[in-house]
Design goal:
This protein is an alpha+beta fold. The protein has 4 domains: 2-90, Rossmann fold, CATH 3.40.50.20; 119-185, Dna Ligase, domain 1; 189-311, ATP-grasp fold, B domain (D-amino Acid Aminotransferase, Chain A, domain 1), CATH 3.30.470; 326-422, Phosphoribosylglycinamide synthetase, C-terminal domain (Glycinamide Ribonucleotide Synthetase, Chain A, domain 4, Alpha-Beta Complex). Helices cover 30% and strands 29% of the residues. The chain has helices at 10-19, 51-60, 71-75, 78-84, 98-101, 103-113, 126-136, 159-170, 238-258, 291-298, 303-311, 389-401, 416-422; strands spanning 2-7, 27-32, 42-43, 65-68, 88-90, 120-123, 140-144, 153-156, 181-185, 190-199, 203-211, 214-216, 220-223, 228-231, 264-274, 277-284, 326-334, 346-347, 358-362, 365-368, 371-374, 378-386, 408-409. The strands form 5 sheets. Strands 10, 11, 14, 15, 16, 17, 19, 22 and 23 form a 9-stranded antiparallel beta sheet that branches. A 5-stranded parallel beta sheet has the order 3-2-1-4-5, sandwiched between helices. Strands 6-9-7-8 form a 4-stranded antiparallel beta sheet, sandwiched between helices. Strand 12 and strand 13 (220-223) form a beta hairpin. The longest helix has 21 residues, at 238-258. It binds adenosine monophosphate and glycine. Residues 150, 211, 225-226, 284, 288-289, 291 line the site of glycine (GLY).
């Protein structure tokens, strides 16, 4: 099978790395890829927002199967356009991708299917949003309706903070994504993510993970796309898992199928484990970044036939096996991220690390001859396996410490919740 992965992040490097191990694969391409993906796939330069150009690339390279990574391409309907041109593609339809593309869409589905989630209001003007805020008080959560690179959510501890977030949204801080605002009840609990493959009717639950969204140690600082993650997340017990599949995942899958927009892809459920049981925080309609990096390190099974089964509605009967180990990943980011940051600083030492249990997935990197340059916010994902979260953490930080990159930074406490719990 000739496969094309779309994307350029750590998630796509991890997917490509795993697909490259499949005996079904004959040739792997990635577009556009990054400074690390060239070791497992052929990088193809293309503007992935230009769907016609992606289709042309598929024709040129006689691609049998396309795997779409990033949320922006899912929400833009790249999958629909690639399928319309006759190619098999792992990517939810634009209609089903609304699960991630519109928070209001997901809240309405939760209402319809009785899926446990935070109480909410949805507003298209500032006055109505503020009026609702004053009836609710704080703490409260303000969300731009559309995609905002993980930055459109304010967990407001005071009414003043909430007012400011509402005014920001309606004054265009998130562009069109903030034209509608969802205001949610604040849910108290621990967050966990569950990943489930779905082919429209059948599901195959993958595994759990916990990520670290804040920029700095102790979960402080601004929200980011994710500064690290580990998998599995033991906080999700068998009982909570069963309840989540029954009360959250199945109603979502059945609800979307009943609407005539079946979900085919990976469902990434962000959950809050509250005193009243698991509640949905949000859905993403693609793999997590950096959660994929830890999941791929743990996956024993061949990923390629699973993704293909999702795309061809043949998931029934498939199973998935995992290493009986933890994986943990630490993100190295350019100083300044998630705000503004420079590009082009040199990273040394990456290629020198060569341990069976540790792997470097690249995100914002670029090759310049023999030099490796930082070319983005999140730059490298140092990912390690261990028998405990602590062992995986120690190995990952040993990898981090082997890197010479003064312009970068990372958190030093990835995995702290689980490590504290197991002490
Ligand atoms: P979202 O983009 O919807 O996942 O929100 C980003 C982050 O904001 C989540 O991962 C949570 O940490 C937090 N958050 C979102 N909604 C709520 C809520 N209703 N209650 C508490 N925290 C929330
Ligand atoms: N790690 C958060 C995300 O992929 O959205």
């Amino acid at each position: 099978m000739r496969v094309l992965v779309i994307g350029s992040g750590g998630r796509e490097h991890a997917l490509a790395w795993k697909i490259a191990q499949s005996p079904l694969l004959t040739k792997l391409f990635i577009a556009p890829g990054n400074g690390g993906t060239g070791s497992v796939a052929e990088n193809l330069a293309v503007d992935v927002t230009d769907h016609a150009a992606v289709v042309a690339l598929c024709r040129q390279h006689q691609i049998d199967f396309v795997v779409v990574g990033p949320d922006a391409q899912v929400v833009a309907g790249l999958g629909d356009d690639v399928r319309a041109a006759g190619f098999t593609c792992f990517c939810p339809s634009k209609a089903a991708g609304q699960l991630e593309g519109s928070k209001g869409f997901t809240k309405a589905l939760c209402d319809e299917m009785d899926i446990p989630t935070a109480a909410y209001g949805r507003f298209d003007n500032e006055a109505a949003a503020l009026a609702y805020l004053y009836t609710q008080g704080a703490p409260i959560v303000i969300k731009a309706d559309g995609l905002a690179a993980g930055k459109g959510v304010t967990v407001a501890m005071s009414v003043e903070e909430a007012e400011e977030a509402i005014i920001d949204c309606f004054s265009g801080a998130f562009g069109a994504s903030g034209a509608e605002v969802v205001i949610e009840e604040f849910m108290e609990g621990e967050e966990v993510s569950l990943f489930v493959l779905c082919d429209g009717t059948n599901i195959l639950p993958l595994t759990t993970a916990q990520d670290h969204k804040r920029a700095f140690d102790g979960d402080t600082g601004p929200n980011t796309g994710g500064m690290g993650a580990y998998s599995p997340a033991p906080v999700m017990t068998r009982e909570i898992y069963d309840e989540t599949i029954e009360r959250v995942i199945w109603p979502t899958v059945r609800g979307l199928a009943a609407r005539g927009t079946p979900y085919q892809g990976v469902l990434y459920a962000g959950l809050m484990l509250t005193e009243d049981g698991p509640k949905l925080v949000e859905y993403n309609a693609r793999f997590g970044d950096p959660e994929t990096q830890v999941m791929m390190m743990r996956m024993e099974s061949d990923l390629l036939p699973l993704l293909h089964a999702v795309a061809t509605s043949t998931l029934a009967g498939h199973d998935v096996a995992w290493k009986d180990q933890f994986a943990l990943t630490v993100i190295l980011a350019t100083q300044g991220y998630p705000g503004s940051y420079g590009k082009g600083s040199e990273i040394k030492g990456v290629d020198a690390v060569n341990a069976e249990h540790t792997h470097f997935f690249h995100a914002g990197t670029r090759r310049d001859g023999d030099r490796l340059l930082a070319w983005g916010g999140r730059v490298l994902n140092v990912t390690a396996l261990g028998d405990t979260v602590l062992e995986a953490q120690q190995r990952a930080y040993a990898g981090v410490d082997a890197i010479d990159w003064p312009e970068g930074f990372c958190r030093r406490d990835i995995g702290w919740r689980e490590i504290a719990r197991s002490r």
